[in-house]
Write a structure and sequence with these properties.
6 helices, 2 strands, single chain, two-stranded antiparallel sheet
């Protein structure tokens, strides 16, 4: 299930595929065959593609100043609760850590920065 999740998670140019995979992943989670964290991350990704607030705080984007910031969340307290239920670090800590890692990588040349941004993006979504 991890390999299938990775394909879906990284198919950012195909939200339809992500939605279909999310349905299958939710079924697998129900039967204990997939990691619920993967479902949470993919759900956030699908919601982001639909322009909706995320529920688990797993997706980050660059703001107008080039800083890494979380895609909007529906309710910070609810996000913290959902993350805690899945054993994820607190959203506030996760967001601060992601931003600090991004700032540390910003000083690299453009080609390395682009690669670093992709790696950071995948590190935020890999589990």
């Amino acid at each position: 299930s991890r390999a299938a999740w990775l394909v879906a998670q990284r198919s950012i140019d195909d939200p339809g595929l992500q939605r279909r995979c999310l349905e299958a992943l939710e079924l697998a989670i129900t039967h204990g065959d997939a990691d619920p964290v993967h479902g949470a991350f993919l759900l956030d990704r699908v919601r982001m593609a639909d322009g909706l607030d995320q529920l688990y705080g797993s997706q980050f984007v660059l703001d107008e100043d080039g800083d890494l910031v979380p895609w909007p969340v529906d309710d910070v307290a609810a996000v913290e609760h959902r993350r805690r239920r899945l054993g994820l670090p607190a959203f506030s800590e996760h967001a601060a850590d992601m931003a600090a890692q991004w700032r540390a990588r910003r000083g690299q040349p453009d080609s390395e920065r682009s690669s670093a941004a992709r790696q950071q993006y995948h590190a935020a979504t890999d589990r």
